[in-house]
Amino acid sequence: MSLQNKNVVITGGSQGIGLATAKQFIQQGANVWITGRNADNLQKAADEIGSAKLKTVVSDTSKFEGIAALEKAVAESGQKIDVLFLNAGVATFAPIEHVTEADFDLQFNTNVKGHFFTLQKLTPHLAEGASITFTSSGVATGSAIATAVYSATKAALNKIADVALNELAPRKIRVNIVSPGPIATPGLDSVAPPEAQAYLASTTALQRVGTADEIAGAVVFLASDAAGYINGADIAIDGGFIQYHLK
Ligand SMILES: NC(=O)c1ccc[n+]([C@@H]2O[C@H](COP(=O)([O-])OP(=O)(O)OC[C@H]3O[C@@H](n4cnc5c(N)ncnc54)[C@H](OP(=O)(O)O)[C@@H]3O)[C@@H](O)[C@H]2O)c1
């Protein structure tokens, strides 16, 4: 797929990985919708990108009304979606004993329910041969302390992606997952102070955290013709975890 004039929807696109991905798709000539809960943050992102090819939709993916607002914007455009990047996500970390119901609901409503129903509502608007990519995480297959809820949301998301692949195959729609390791974003800054980020960097073979652009590049590639036979992949973009590279 050449990305010129393709229609791309990115949930959680006002900062971090979603914003970096929006920029790269715009550079490729695509039309991009980005979503987020906060209108000011979306406006900042739009100002930064500065392209008429970018549109913003205030849409809280954890709520049905938010998903409906996104669906309405897409339906009113009269366009089919060529690329759907289901990326919005939140994380809070605490040992199981200290997790609150609010922590649990926020993460499951955003990271699982939100993606599931966004996928459901936008499926009728997907073009034949569209590319869907989910943002999961390396933690989906890990079991580090204090990550039970967040990890469980990402593991659930991976299963939804697996099933979607089979259900959407008759329409030649490809479904893939990107699983970032630690990536420098406002989201990471909000949960990991500098010393925690230094520790995370030390757990990677490359001894650094990644950049949002390094995830964006993979998502753009997955949407392109060059990835036309890549379907059902879960691409780890994590610098290589050190435990796989014994010193
Ligand atoms: N950074 C990492 O180290 C890392 C590692 C593994 C996986 N991930 C995953 O990568 C994705 C992006 O993370 P990031 O680090 O780029 O996060 P980020 O910097 O916090 O950005 C998150 C984006 O999602 C939006 N968002 C949050 N909740 C939303 C909701 N309910 N509805 C719509 N938009 C929402 C935010 O905008 P508003 O706040 O305005 O809504 C923002 O645009 C997430 O799924 C995260 O779990 C990140």
Automatic annotation (TrEMBL):
Keywords carried by this UniProt record: NADP, Oxidoreductase
Record-linked CDD domains: SDR_c (cd05233)
GO molecular-function term, one example from the UniProt record: oxidoreductase activity
Sequence similarity: Belongs to the short-chain dehydrogenases/reductases (SDR) family.
Protein name, per record: SDR family oxidoreductase
